[in-house]
């Protein structure tokens, strides 16, 4: 049986088609739906091209980097391979999906979000008599733009240095680059939660030992966490971001040594607190600080496209100083859904 992917013409221009990525351009030219019921139905268009050129990217029998450059057409696949592996590194142990309410794809560098800031009176659930006017919830655009930031790494290596490296081994370096980029985006998110997105909306900040938080400054207790939890009504503190030292302090509390908490951690690798909140440890958090938030309402992630690589350089084997970048920003949604506690 003859398949379309065997005769597809690959060229650099597929990387800069307006409004779609290289993968999307491949899918448009060679739709996956045409392969339903065939041995190739579980492969996407890019994976079918790897099969076409007999390029193995995983496992002990993975090919060397030079295999991508056996022809001018197969070389076009190399930047997409780099992009996919970097994206895989960004997704491994990535905290961002656990703290963002929504992700908005946006083509640009300056983004204006919306917000709703109801008063206590507007939050109350009132009985509405027949014929009476319903309470209002006002949704407005933010006064100031949310700035997006390009984060990335420079891949510095000569083609001669990597041409005979196995793709499986080379992928480890690319995944590490992706992990570093994700860490930088997380730092941006934490900064927006704490200090706002430029629209005069920093998070409410509390300090242990200062009303309404009990305890003694410099020492975190379960009672102080309860006081902090109580500040979230009508939201629910379902996520807590902590640095490593604060995580250790919390795990040493008697209340966190519940056998069910331990079983959940052993079974899933996820830690939940007696307050019902998921604990997320990250070195991107400042020392002696924790952030509590309702992840369903606190933060919007704005992403400007996919992982970008300098495809011209990679296709032409000019790997030296090839930039790999990702552009994202963050906007506050409901300001009261995220709060900061200093110990």
Task: Offer a concise description of the structure.
By secondary structure, this protein is α+β, with helices and mostly antiparallel strands.
Explain what the structure shows.
By secondary structure, the protein is an alpha+beta fold. The protein has a domain at 4-92 and 149-189 and 307-327. The chain contains 11 helices and 15 strands. The strands form 4 sheets. A 6-stranded mixed beta sheet has the order 7-15-11-8-10-9. Strands 1, 6, 12, 13 and 14 form a 5-stranded mixed beta sheet that branches. The protein has a two-stranded antiparallel sheet with strand order 2-5. Strand 9 (271-272) and strand 10 (278-281) form a beta hairpin. Helix 4 packs across helix 7. The longest helix is centred in the middle third of the chain and has 29 residues, at 167-195. The radius of gyration is 25 Å and the shape is elongated. The termini are far apart.
Q: Which structural class do you get from the secondary structure elements?
A: alpha+beta
- SS elements, strand count: 15
User: Given the C-alpha coordinates, what overall shape results?
Assistant: elongated
Helix proportion: 25-40%
Residue-averaged pLDDT, rounded? 87
Strand proportion, as a percent range, falls in 15-25%
The DSSP helix count reads 11
Measured between the Cα atoms of the first and last residue, the distance is 67 Å
Physical arrangement of strands within the biggest beta sheet: 7-15-11-8-10-9
The helix/strand order is HHHHEEEHEEEHHEHEHHEEEEEHEE
Radius of gyration: 25 Å
Which spans of ≥5 residues are poorly predicted at pLDDT below 50?
none
Largest sheet: 6 strands, mixed
């Amino acid at each position: 049986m003859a398949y379309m992917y065997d005769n597809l013409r690959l060229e650099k221009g597929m990387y800069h088609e307006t409004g779609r990525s290289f993968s999307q351009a491949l899918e448009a030219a060679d739709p996956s739906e045409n392969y339903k019921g065939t041995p190739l139905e579980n492969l996407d268009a890019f994976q079918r091209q790897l099969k076409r050129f007999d390029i193995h990217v995983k496992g002990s029998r993975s090919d060397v980097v030079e295999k991508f450059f056996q022809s001018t057409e197969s070389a076009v696949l190399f930047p997409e391979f780099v992009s996919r592996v970097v994206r895989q590194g960004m997704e491994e142990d990535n905290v961002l999906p656990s703290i963002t309410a929504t992700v908005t794809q946006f083509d640009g560098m300056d983004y204006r979000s919306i917000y709703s800031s109801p008063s206590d009176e507007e939050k109350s659930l009132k009985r509405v008599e027949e014929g009476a006017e319903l309470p209002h919830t006002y949704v407005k655009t933010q006064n100031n733009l949310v700035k997006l930031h390009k984060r990335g790494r420079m891949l510095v290596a000569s083609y001669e240095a990597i041409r005979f490296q196995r793709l499986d081994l080379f992928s480890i370096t690319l995944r590490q680059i992706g992990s570093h980029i994700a860490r930088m985006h997380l730092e941006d998110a934490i900064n927006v939660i704490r200090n706002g997105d430029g629209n005069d909306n920093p998070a409410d900040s509390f300090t242990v030992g200062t009303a309404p938080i009990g305890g003694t400054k410099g020492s975190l207790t379960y009672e102080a966490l309860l006081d902090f939890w109580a500040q979230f009504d009508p939201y629910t503190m379902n996520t807590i971001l902590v640095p490593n030292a604060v995580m250790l302090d919390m795990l040493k509390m008697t209340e966190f040594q519940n056998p069910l908490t331990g079983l959940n951690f052993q079974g899933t690798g996820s830690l939940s607190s007696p307050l019902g909140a998921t604990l997320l440890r990250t070195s991107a958090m400042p020392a002696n600080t924790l952030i509590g938030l309702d992840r369903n309402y606190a933060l919007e992630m704005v992403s400007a496209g996919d992982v970008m690589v300098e495809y011209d350089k990679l296709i032409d084997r000019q790997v030296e100083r090839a930039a790999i970048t990702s552009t994202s920003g963050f906007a506050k949604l409901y300001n009261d859904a995220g709060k900061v506690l200093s110990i």
